[in-house]
Amino acid sequence: MNRNFLIKVLFAAILPLFISCENKDNPSNEDINNNNGNQQQNPVELVMNVDDPEILALQVADGTSVHYYGEKNDDGTPKSIQQIFVKDNIDGNTIIDVDEKLKPTRIVTYTGVTYDIEWSSDTEGVINAYEPVSKTTVCVNFDTKTEIGILDTPKTSIKKASRNGEFRTSIVPNNTSINNNYYVQKKVRSAADGNQSVLVTFEKCDDFYDPTSIYLTVLGEDGSWRGELHQYEKIATGKYLFQIPSSKYSSIDMEQWVDAINNVFSAVGFVSECLVAVGGDYVLCAAVSAGLTALTEGAFIAAAPGFTAGCTAAIKGLAAASLINGVGLSGVPAFGADNTPTLSNAFIQMLKDANLLKKIYTDNIKIGCVVNGTAGGWPEVLMTPDDLSKVIPIVTEGTPLMQRFYLDPSSPVAYQGYNAYAVLHCMEKGTKVTMHIEGTDGYKKTQEYTITSTNSTISMYVPGAEKGVQDIVTIDIRTSTGDFLQGSHAYLWFH
Description:
Elements: H1 3-21, H2 29-33, E1 44-47, E2 54-61, E3 64-72, E4 78-88, E5 94-98, E6 104-108, E7 114-119, E8 124-131, E9 136-143, E10 156-160, H3 181-184, E11 196-204, E12 207-208, E13 214-220, E14 225-229, E15 233-236, E16 239-244, H4 254-265, H5 270-273, H6 283-292, H7 297-321, E17 326-327, E18 332-335, E19 341-342, H8 345-352, E20 355-357, E21 365-371, E22 374-375, E23 381-383, E24 389-396, E25 401-408, E26 418-425, E27 432-439, E28 444-450, E29 456-462, E30 470-478, E31 484-493
Helix pairs in contact: 1-6, 1-7, 6-7
């Protein structure tokens, strides 16, 4: 198959996305100014809590927002950008990891296509692109100093089905963790640093238990909304410790914050611009297109649509990530009077008027709980700046329940023993539990228990049998007076 012909065919497929990237399909400065049709709503949110890796969030269009994550100084001002998360409620989400020079090192697109980029210089490197549907990996050299980013003698390798298993991404930027070292290594300031804390405990039937979910709401003493606290340390079953921001930073100097953000974000347009070749094409598309020509015709036809869609998604994510100081598709930063990159005056004004998230609290605040998605009805506490800690005890009534009955292992091999487990909750002391096992080989065993703790796990060991034997294990739970409460049974075969 002719190499030049394939490149032209693939470029013909990709060409419409370059055109659309310059139109309203992608975020623009107009999208920022007219966010949600409400010009009075500031689209910028600054996250000032030093414990939170998110620096700022920008709403660029209906259903699309850009979140920047990175390192922070001790006062919460940004130190560097390490990851950009483009949240698109219509098409899907894109993650862009960047190095200290804001050059992308990994792009995970909403189509599943992933680009791993290794830079050998400011303009050259290697792209490893993976398309999950065809299970095709393209490894190709690039050089943005060339017309379309392709080296004169590209070194390309194609590996079919080079990854086993299902391709998955996990993107949770706010209150849970992600499969990324940067997210999970959040700093948590201790009480010795001046933090206040709130301990929330959950007790039912004389024992502690874990809720499905919990977070705290923070109100001013006058009832004004101050925000939510999602980060906690689980110190034991049913015990959750929340750190409350202290009054260490009693005032916010917005000029200082704007200067710090401008220093870090002034060249964020290079996230996109550094991947654009001399001729204006993205090397993610051009270089990978050249690499695809090494495939057989059938493999090319199978892989090309996925890589084309991945290119579209990557460009859309890069354009959104670079929008705050870029002009057009390339994202080339604006320059100030001293010929250094700078954010636009309009965006700087947005920063000065931005919504401040997780602002430091210096007055009395009311702390409440949202438990399992339900607010209200739970205890709340009033915390003053002089308080070191507070406790919110949540005690609820419970109904006698066998939470789980199972066999482990559930599919034993011949002559492998197993255990039958019953997890009991809120049982009255004196409750009678009978477990009985009967096998097709004639084996029988019955064991009786009397409950002495309201919450407990009981077990019965069963020795192994020969291959093909089937066991049935039953459980019967009755009150101390003999009234039936609950029962169940489980089967297994020895393999």
